[in-house]
Amino acid sequence: MISIFQKRVLEAVKRIPRGKVLTYKEIAKLANSPKAYRAVGNILNKNPDIKTIPCHRVIRSDGQVGGYRFGTQKKISLLKKEGVLIRKRNIVT
After folding, report:
1. Active site residues
2. Cβ-proximal residues to 16 (8 Å cutoff; 6+ apart), any chain
């Protein structure tokens, strides 16, 4: 069973379009808990449906790619495949 906050986080991440990214902080705000950005990372680390909830599209506020359950290199690979520009583990805007 998941909490209302977890559900809000997963729904917000589900809506991130291919080739776009949001920060953990932005997801926390969308889930109505703006200070819970660390909790967002913990929730995404336990993502129950990797195929429909693209948690690789969530990055750190400083522009760095951040962690990923399957490794940072896999996250970078997925983002690049979607057209996200990355230089030295940072998102290029």
Report:
1. 55
2. 22, 54, 57, 58
- Give the Å distances, CA to CA, from 30 to 18, 48, 78: 18, 19, 23
φ and ψ at 43, to 5 degrees? -65, -45
Query: pLDDT per residue over 5-46, tens digit each?
Result: 999 999 999 999 999 999 999 999 999 999 999 999 999 999
The full set of domains in the chain, from first to last, is 4-91 (1.10.10.10)
Burial of 12 (0-12, 13-18, 19+ CB in 10 A): buried
Amino acid (one-letter) located at 65:
V
Taking a C-beta distance cutoff of 8 angstroms, is the pair 61, 24 a contact?
yes
Tokens 């690979």, located at residue: 77
Region at 5 (left for phi over 0; alpha for psi -120 to 50; beta for the rest): alpha
